[in-house]
Amino acid sequence: MSAIHIIVFLPLLAAIIAGLGNKQLGNVPAKVVTTGALFISCALSWPIFLSFLSGHAEAHVSPVLHWVTSGNLDFAWALRVDTLTAVMLVVITSVSALVHLYSWGYMSDEPDQPRFFAYLSLFTFAMLMLVTADNLVQMFFGWEGVGLASYLLIGFWFRKPSANAAAMKAFVVNRVGDLGFMMGIFGTFLVFGTVSIPAILEAAPGMAGSTVGFLGHRFDTMTVLCLLLFIGAMGKSAQLGLHTWLPDAMEGPTPVSALIHAATMVTAGVFMVCRLSPMFETSPTALGFVTFIGAATCFFAATIGTTQTDIKRVIAYSTCSQLGYMFFAAGVGAYGAAMFHLFTHAFFKALLFLGAGSVIHAMHHEQDMRYYGGLRKHIPITFWAMTAGTLAITGVGIVDVVGFAGFYSKDAILEAAFARGTELSHFAFFMGIFAALLTSFYSWRLVFLTFFGKPRWEQSEHIQHAVHDAHGHDDHGHEGHGHAHHGHDDHGHHGHHSDGTAGYHPHESPAVMLTPLVILSIGAIFAGLVFNHAFVSEGTGEFWKGSLVFSEHLIHAMHQVPHWVKWAPFTVMATGLLIAWYAYIKNTKFPAALVDQFGFLYRFLLNKWYFDELYHFIFVRPALWLGRVFWKVGDIGIIDRFGPNGAAWVVAKGSRAAVKLQSGYLYSYALVMLIGLTLAISWVIAQ
Amino acid sequence: MTGFPILSVMLLVPLVTAVACLLVDREQARTVALVGTLIDFVLGMLLWANFDTGGAQWQFTEHAALFAGFEWKLGIDGIALMLIALTVFLMPVCIGASWLSIDKRQGEYYAAFMLMETLMIGVFAAQDLFLFYIMFEAGLIPMYLIIGIWGGAERIYASYKFFLYTLLGSVLMLIAMFWMVNEAGTTDIPTLMVYNFPVHAQTWLWLAFFASFAVKMPMWPVHTWLPDAHVQAPTGGSVILAGVLLKMGGYGFIRFSLPMFPEASAQFAPLIWGLSMAAVVITSLIALVQHDMKKLIAYSSVAHMAIVTIGLFAFNEQGLEGSMIVMLSHGLVAGALFLCVGVIYDRLHTREIDRYGGLAINMPKYALFFLLFTMASIGLPGTSGFVGEFLSLLGVYQASSWVALICTTGIILGAAYMLYLYRRVAFGEQKNADAAAMPDLDAREWAMMVPLAAVVLWMGVYPQSFLDPMKKDIAALDARLAQARPKGDADVKMGAPKPAAEHEAHEGEAH
């Protein structure tokens, strides 16, 4: 029993205790058990990470239990720890522990708390199994396990039809990706005769240039395998085409969005590509595809982010876009930069989500930014935390001097894309630069709409209900929200309000929610500065120790990029900030005017490029239609009609003997058996 | 254990219990039946404990000449052992499921169940061709009675369909058996399994057996008896039908068609693949639009059985072992799902999905078990469903990537129809007052759910317990099939060796 066993299995144990104990156990014990377990896991993870950081640790595998042997296929439960895993360990356990803590406050009015915390811990366990996997099947176990936890948490408020629909959509769309992942595992086993990751990675370069038959055609072996596996990554990481579940996943409680749909689970695809980077390196075509999808997603999601009004959806599209950055970083061969962005993004995006949760908490579950405004003075700590997160995501910093977390990681990615020097990498570079402009715009738009300007709360139904309730009416009208009331019912203001507040006074969140915000703010501010050297600089190969492909050559080229390339991210960041400032503070009529001017484009973006409508039209409706046709026409209309019913008809119309036979099915059956037996016996006797 | 005729005793115990059920007071019949099934369960576990893994292929053999060459010949290998273990494990659950819901002619009902247990174990233990045939066909009579007497409103139509389908196949199989005995000069199954039938004759023999096994399986398009039979059968009947009777087709393929006619099996593999692919896609889509819970699960069974057939006809160890695990897993999971339907059917007397909703509120423990079995049904790793499905599909990928791709779409469609079912039953608001008033699981239901859940997880986390006893038999079968194995479509060809694939290889290679 080593530390890694405790790190991984303690959350599982806590989830079982809290989940099965549930109501009998009570809220506080369930919360203590799960949160305590996560803090212990977190405390054990950092020393592992630091020992890799200082170069003292070696990769090792801790066996757990044998799993399956079938012919030459053999795999076991085991926990692998190397640099790549160590990075993921601290990300997962730290964010998870903080989200557990935060949920004490955020979910405090929830009647069903043990279930919530059990799901959170279960998720953490599955995610840890994913990142410690030593073979593809265990990775798939974690992969589907986090999918299950995500399904349960999105649908946590299971009375709400929209939450149920979103949960199911998340699971099914992910399964489309999993189809690719499974086919990838099958193909990998066929080619390499093993599912052990180290063995595959070792043998992969030798297979470069070989061809394989697949679906009746011949293809480059490694391209087929990498593309199949990458389809899995696209599903889990919500990349273009398989992204539709992520925005809907915001139906889940906000801490869930922070942990699963920002910091950890959705980055599993990036982790997978990095873990299997020696495989991807053997197929330029696959890498090209990864680059293209990443660049397209980073642009596409950012465009949608600019028009959404739901605060969580803006951040969700932002996540989708940032994942695109990570993928094209991997696609151009800068795996270290991809992991670095994954690392910093985990902190600042979790911060933004938890900050948004704090805003939503203060605003009585109103999520529409059109009804926010002027919150800066009411919830100052949340405001400063969100500002830190925004500074980090937009990549504020001065080249070669200092900056916030996202500045280091995003710039590293963009420089790598430029330095790679292929057409596709340049495409990714320009997409990334443009997306950075949009990122800056929508992030500051969020901050300005929420915290600046005048309060616009009075139009919000949630706020009206809150005020209404506070005035002593017991008509609890917002049951449609699907969960318990929130406790801001103590606002004693009366009379008419012309200041847009409707007499509502938002409160700053409690300390259990603010503490994680403050800790994550520190991460968002300093994570880039502190770890920049370890993740992406010359000599970093010693840090990664072969756990991913690290090209010193590329790092060197990154330092040689022209000055305009280095300054481009800064320029677009400032431009985005400026536009947002102009549109949402200086001249607030400007956005409406723009919408009038470009109505079509606005509606196209507002409706998310009509992906949902398209998918509904080409997949969902035909599937249901086909199901009915196969049932009513196929099974009933053809098979039954000409099969058993037809036979019955023939029998009914047949001779008297047949009618007699039909009168007692059991006897006739027994009779046939008897005839058969008699024949059998007489046959044997005759022999 | 040497000398103790444990298999005969296992056949005798339920038979004696059946007679006892008819004799005792009808209120007592269920207790008698429960005791009988539990004794057989203990015997079954003794059988497993004493099975020598890696020892002789055929163990616990018994032999007694009856008359004129017709022999009482029993014996099991690892494959039969696992299916017998499944049978004796599910039987007490079935009795438990019938405990309160059967309120007429209890004596006959339990007697029919006990008789069926004898016959099912007999199918898996028989070593004589005709003994097998009798058990195989007679096993349907009690099932037929259970549907026809204790079934729902449309029971007569359902039992008629069930009868008609199965009759057709068995006649052809019997004729084929006569021919085989004539040719090989023996009725001994182990001997027949290594007998090399002439290749041209294999074609006809294979088709005759296929007619019977395809119906029992059931394979598309001869599956339409199954939804009706399930819908009309009482809960206990559905559990045993899904749990064990559906495994007889698969057992038939692995015991007869594959080892006895390997060349014909290879020749007809594309037929099996085609029907299986059709089944996975078509029946999954049909399951998506069902309003009746039992019908939905019945259609999902057809899709799962298609994963069994592609695994069997993948001609490699992963495929064969995978299909065995799918069979065992499906026996547990589909049985458990029918039990879940039974639990709420007992309370509300409807299978209409829309009559439920929001059960996670008033029946949270039930919702948990239902969720676990739903997840096992859609093959979530860590449950039994995944291991079997994964091995089967991995096996067939080596034979044909097309077949693997089409059948793997089952994981998407399966998730869609099962989660849609779960969402409508367990989630949402409580829209029906009577459904909202239903109490959570009672002690009897707990006692049935917990063992099923435990085994489902055990088989998912450590399937070796179930794979090990079969390993040697599967390897032997794989070796026998090797001569006929169809060539896969992958055929990896090494390319020209490249100079160390460094990053320079990327330059100019833009997508």
Description:
In chain A, the strands form three sheets. A two-stranded antiparallel ribbon of chain A has the order 1-2. A two-stranded antiparallel ribbon of chain A has the order 3-4. In chain A, strands 5-6 form a two-stranded antiparallel sheet. Chain A starts with a helix and ends with a helix. In chain A, 59% of the residues are buried. Chain A has 29 helices and six strands. Chain A is mainly α. Chain B has helices at 6-23, 29-50, 78-98, 106-125, 129-138, 140-150, 155-184, 189-193, 199-216, 225-232, 235-245, 247-260, 262-288, 293-312, 317-348, 359-362, 364-377, 384-397, 401-408, 410-426, 433-436, 443-461, 464-482, and strands at 59-67, 70-76. In chain B, strands 1-2 form a two-stranded antiparallel sheet. The model of chain B is unreliable at 500-511 (pLDDT under 50). Chains A and B meet through strand 1, helix 5, helix 6, strand 3 and helix 13 of A and helix 5, helix 6, helix 7, helix 13 and helix 15 of B.
Shape of chain B: globular
| Termini Cα gap of chain B | 67 Å
What does the largest sheet of chain A look like? 2 strands, antiparallel
**Overall SS class of chain A:** mainly alpha
Percent strand of chain A: under 5%
Shape of chain A: globular
Helix content of chain B: over 70%
Q: What is the string of SSEs of chain B from the N terminus onward?
A: HHEEHHHHHHHHHHHHHHHHHHHHH
How many beta strands in the DSSP annotation of chain A? 6
| Tally of separate helices of chain B | 23
Question: Count of helices of chain A?
Answer: 29
